Amino acid sequence: MEINVFKLCSGLKFLGYLMILLVAAIIAVSYDAIVIVTCGPQLLRGGAHSVLAFAIIMIFHLLLIMLLWSYYRVVFKDPGSVPENWRAVLPEEALEAGSSLNDRPDCVVDTVGLDRRAFCNYCQNGKPPRCHHCSVCQRCVLKMDHHCVWVVNCVGARNYKFFLLFLLYTFMVTTMDTLVLLPAFINFFGEVKDHSSSPSDLAVIFLAFVLNLAFALSLLCFLVMHASLLSSNTTSIEVYEKRGAARWKYDLGRKKNFEQVFGTKKALWFFPLFSKEDVDNIPALHGLDFPIRADPES
Which residues are the active-site residues? Predict the structure, then answer.
């Protein structure tokens, strides 16, 4: 009896559900430490203390709303699935549609990636360019970047922007929490010794500070890495594929690379959504067609 070992990876989905609970727990602890324990009492003092506390609480809630919105979108948005019985079009067919895919003379349709032999033995279906099979989700994902256990979903063509915004807003929230809690954390050991504060409040402050500091530092590394990938129009998987290439064929320049993920509407760049115009006019957002450089080897 033949056993597909990749199916065993589907058990990682259960770990993902635990990660969602962990995210909720960290948010709850941070909310308690910032709003209830630290800034809440400052609102009653009056003067500059109240103004500062009110500003911190408002900014915290604004960032938290954007974080949760982005998190919801990356968790529940399909990263992109290959249509049933999909086949790679012939180069001449792609060139006929080239004018609708590119508006620059230095970009062409990815006829190199349109290979009829690209086939997934697990899905029994064709594989578009930049598509990879996820052993956890048990399906092919369009422009797959990676499977993220924190969101119980793959990160691909149609939710990569939401994932990046989730990283950004989480980093901003955790950094803000760390700075706000820093004075209380510095006085932590003195207050423990003098019993001048509630043990539960001190425990919440200590735990929230350590968690937020750890996440802020780790997220900074992820943000730097994905900013580099975004600027070169590369996924985490493609980092290994592009080694040795003189110029990555999907690298259209930083501006075009950014728009392939975030769209062209500047007003929506920091919101987890796209304009209808971008969805209609940017094929890369659908994950099936990608323009490439006319001189990828130059």
Answer: 148
Among 3-7, 122-126, 225-229, 256-260, where is mean pLDDT lowest?
3-7
Q: Which of 98-102, 197-201, 270-274 has the lowest mean pLDDT?
A: 98-102
Task: State the number of CA atoms in the 13 A half-sphere of 182 facing the CB.
Answer: 7
pTM value is 0.86
Q: Which residue has the tokens 């994950």?
A: 287
